């Protein structure tokens, strides 16, 4: 018996990540993009995919999961739509507020929810290494330096803040620094330093397709699951 493809809504479709998701969705088995949503639209249908403005969200066709890579100001309506329609919600939008983080937890009572500051496997591994290093290096200075392209609006990056939470779980008190230069996709250096020595743990992303592929796989695997708050490591 063939399984019906997971029907996807891509939110933030005109953005750097939205464009990567649309480009790669065609290569990912088990899914079909049924709606692309962005703040303002030009053409109604692009490459056979219906496009909608953010204000048209309530009228989008039925979908099984939404993937959101928009901005904090676009986050609330798409989360609310998923909760209302009983659809899975996958989001990588960073710079969201504490209230929006709480809204994710509230929605997870009704639908499967996955929010991740970084959808790469490499950063998921780095996160665990940072926590282990912090736990082993009591009293060492911990600094997180993140570098991104000049168009990035939030700082520190969501990934840097998540790595800082991992370091804090290990007992460190991380400090942050942000660089904005060129077209850097995303680099995170976590340094532990003490008298006479230091350790550097570094992740360098050179293609944002790694994030898009992670989010697409997560959405296919999350759709249809029981309500709850899921992590990347639960699904990748
Ligand atoms: N978790 C992860 O692995 C990753 C997370 N990110 C995060 O994803 C987010 C997007 O990044 P990026 O693609 O570079 O950003 P872009 O600025 O390139 O794209 C943002 C998209 O969101 C849309 N948008 C903005 N506001 C609204 C709104 N109110 N309603 C509907 N759509 C809206 C924009 O539409 P329009 O063009 O019409 O304005 C655009 O399509 C950022 O928060 C970034 O940090 C990025 C990479 C990886
Ligand atoms: O804005 C970006 O580009 C990225 N943002 C995410 C973050 O804020 O951590 C993930 C990745 O570093 C790319």
TrEMBL record:
Q: Where does NADP(+) bind?
A: 40
Which enzyme type, at the first EC level?
oxidoreductase
- Subcellular location field: Cytoplasm
Gene Ontology MF terms in the entry: 4-hydroxy-tetrahydrodipicolinate reductase
UniProt xrefs under Gene3D superfamilies: Dihydrodipicolinate Reductase, domain 2 (3.30.360.10), NAD(P)-binding Rossmann-like Domain (3.40.50.720)
Matching entries from SUPFAM superfamilies are given as: Glyceraldehyde-3-phosphate dehydrogenase-like, C-terminal domain, NAD(P)-binding Rossmann-fold domains
Major location (coarse):
cytoplasm
**Record keywords:** Amino-acid biosynthesis, Cytoplasm, Diaminopimelate biosynthesis, Lysine biosynthesis, NAD, NADP, Oxidoreductase
Which NCBIfam families is this protein grouped with? dapB (TIGR00036)
Q: What is its EC number?
A: 1.17.1.8
Where in this chain does the record put each Dihydrodipicolinate reductase N-terminal domain? 6-119
The record's comment on protein family reads: Belongs to the DapB family.
User: Which pathway does the protein contribute to?
Assistant: Amino-acid biosynthesis; L-lysine biosynthesis via DAP pathway; (S)-tetrahydrodipicolinate from L-aspartate: step 4/4
Q: What is this protein called?
A: 4-hydroxy-tetrahydrodipicolinate reductase
Q: Which organism is it from?
A: Luteimonas composti
Active site annotated at which positions? 148, 152
* Keyword NADP attributed: yes
Q: Which residues are (S)-2,3,4,5-tetrahydrodipicolinate-binding?
A: 149, 158-159
Task: Give the protein's function.
Answer: Catalyzes the conversion of 4-hydroxy-tetrahydrodipicolinate (HTPA) to tetrahydrodipicolinate.
Q: Which reaction does it catalyse?
A: (S)-2,3,4,5-tetrahydrodipicolinate + NAD(+) + H2O = (2S,4S)-4-hydroxy-2,3,4,5-tetrahydrodipicolinate + NADH + H(+); (S)-2,3,4,5-tetrahydrodipicolinate + NADP(+) + H2O = (2S,4S)-4-hydroxy-2,3,4,5-tetrahydrodipicolinate + NADPH + H(+)
Q: Where does NAD(+) bind?
A: 12-17, 92-94, 116-119
Q: What HAMAP family does the record point to? A: DapB (MF_00102)
Which residue numbers delimit the Dihydrodipicolinate reductase C-terminal domain?
122-236
């Amino acid at each position: 018996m063939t399984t019906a493809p997971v029907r996807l809504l891509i939110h933030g479709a005109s953005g750097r990540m939205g464009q990567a998701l649309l480009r790669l969705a065609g290569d990912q088995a088990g899914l079909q993009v049924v709606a692309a949503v962005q703040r303002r639209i030009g053409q109604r249908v692009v490459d056979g995919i219906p496009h909608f403005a953010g204000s048209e969200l309530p009228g989008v066709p039925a979908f099984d999961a939404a993937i959101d890579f928009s901005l904090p100001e676009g986050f609330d309506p798409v989360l609310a739509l998923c909760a209302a329609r009983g659809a899975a919600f996958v989001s990588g939008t960073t710079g969201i507020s504490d209230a929006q983080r709480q809204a994710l937890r509230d929605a997870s009572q009704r639908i499967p929810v996955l929010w991740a500051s970084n959808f790469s496997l490499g950063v998921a591994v780095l996160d665990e290494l940072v926590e282990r290093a912090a736990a082993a290096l009591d009293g060492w200075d911990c600094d997180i330096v993140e570098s991104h392209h000049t168009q990035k609006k939030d700082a520190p990056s969501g990934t840097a803040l998540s790595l800082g939470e991992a370091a804090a779980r290990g007992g460190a008190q991380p400090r942050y620094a942000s660089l904005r230069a060129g077209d850097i996709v995303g680099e995170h250096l976590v340094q532990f330093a003490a008298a006479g020595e230091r350790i550097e743990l570094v992740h360098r992303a050179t293609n944002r397709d790694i994030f898009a592929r992670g989010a697409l796989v997560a959405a296919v695997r999350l759709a249809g699951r029981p309500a709850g708050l899921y992590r990347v490591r639960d699904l990748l």
